[in-house]
Design brief:
This is Aldose 1-epimerase. InterPro entries: Aldose_1/G6P_1-epimerase, Gal_mutarotase_sf_dom, GH-type_carb-bd. This protein is mainly beta. It has a single domain, classed as Beta-galactosidase, Chain A, domain 5. The strands form seven sheets. It has a nine-stranded antiparallel β-sheet.
Amino acid sequence: MREALSNPFAADPATDLRIDDPSLVVLSSGATTLVVAPQVGGSIAAYGERTNTRVLHWLRPATRAALAAVNPLQMASFPLFPYCNRIRGARFAFEGRAIDLAGDGNRFAHALHGHAWRTPWRVGARTATSVELHFEHVPDAKATGDWPFRYRASQRIELIGGALRVTLEAENLSAGPMPFGMGHHPYYPRTSNTVVTAQVEQMWHADDHVLPTHLGPHPAVDALARGMSADAFDLDNNFSGWARSATIAWPDEGREVTLTAESPFDHMVVFAPANEAQLCVEPVTNTTDCFNANEDSRERAGYRVLQPGETIRAALAWTPRRV
């Protein structure tokens, strides 16, 4: 009984997460509990609200096995630095310089999600409802495929009532300019009744490697505006012209959570593969492979360069609601 009271996930069939794990940071606000796993790439492990009968998970919760495996892809959400999604062949050119990331330990053929998600983050200031996480990358000239730019990143993760707010910040510590992008990669509970609603203008169509081919119309654009079933399409695509708000709803459960984002999180990724239980609606500053975009499409792709000493900072929020 004591465990059930102290750990809202103790009798939860969705996860066997133990919040007494000393490696975790647990935040609490009223009936809402947020679990942060700094050692697993600065990830959020769980975000749920306790009711009289169950825990309502606003993000898909991690399991004890996922924590033991230090697997960010099985967390509730993880940060994306210093770029989002894939880079074709793990290579791109920047200011006449060839950047090769193929040997940085990323096991994917196309460099994926940067590297900060595969590295422990340091815990900074914390309260009962907030925590700051810090990460600094110092390039290793002797390491094959290392990101060759030095930068500092931080996350401020906080509960404001039942809402979750994450503020991402990065500073270019290099002597020269640095290409850059950031985002967060949240997973949501997916059922046969899950609905995603968002205002977008166009979709980046992709090839078999999930790399963009062209920007154009798609039935998912109109479906999202009306409220799209998570099962409607086989999606792993970027959307442009995002209004920086998206709602993930479970109508049969009478609940929904709304994601809102500040600029420059002007792009949204929907990962809703057919015949799988995964669902991601991701706020990002850049589209897939934006560092290889040609000059005509760079602005549309969110291509961004931070000058020496320049800082970028923007917040995301998830606000739950019973309906």
